[in-house]
Amino acid sequence: MPNKIYLIKGDITKQNADAIVNAANSSLLGGGGVDGAIHRAGGPEILNECIRIRNRQGGCKTGEAVITGGGNLKTKYVIHTVGPVWNGGDKNEPQLLANAYRNALKLAIENGIHTISFPNISTGIYHFPKDLAAQIAIDTVKTFLNQHEEPLSVTFVCFDDENYALYESLLKEK
Ligand code: AR6
Known about the structure:
Blueprint: E1 4-9, E2 19-23, H1 33-42, H2 44-57, E3 65-69, E4 77-81, H3 93-110, E5 115-118, H4 130-147, E6 153-158, H5 161-173
Parallel strand pairs: 1-6, 2-4, 2-5, 5-6
Antiparallel strand pairs: 3-4
Helix pairs in contact: 3-4, 4-5
Residues 11-13, 23-25, 31-35, 37, 83, 119-126, 157, 159-160, 163 line the site of ligand AR6.
């Protein structure tokens, strides 16, 4: 199976990929946005696993990622990663966002995942500029897939029209 990149507009909690990615926060205790939607749809099992991870390693740092089961979701796994809060752009935000995508992809490969769906990490409550975030997401995923032979298909799931349009044009031009 060749590595592929797909784009859809919709709700990531409805995806039946092997794994969906959650734009979490360092506490791993849930929140609003896509994090809230995933925990609502996935049920308490996911949060319980997050609490166990938090008790073991003290949460998840910005740019890092952890994995749990998918609870009541169609997906087998949820990979929780923490994107950076946008703070003007000179606090390493671009590198930290790339790390979040890269570390989620690494965990996917380590767990034998073949299909993974990403939301537009950091572009909601964390206010990362959408155009720069889309560029970083696409570049990081493409580079990672080029560097790995394991079969892995990546779907970007955009919830809002602006992100969808940005991804559509960036994926077309590259
Ligand atoms: N499916 C796909 N994408 C979604 C969904 C959904 N159901 N709901 C929202 N989005 P955000 P962040 C999009 O705010 O900026 C939480 O409180 C949304 O349109 O969810 O990384 C966490 O606990 C946006 O494009 O995440 C953290 O505290 C994208 O998901 C904080 O928010 C990310 O928006 C993380 O902020």
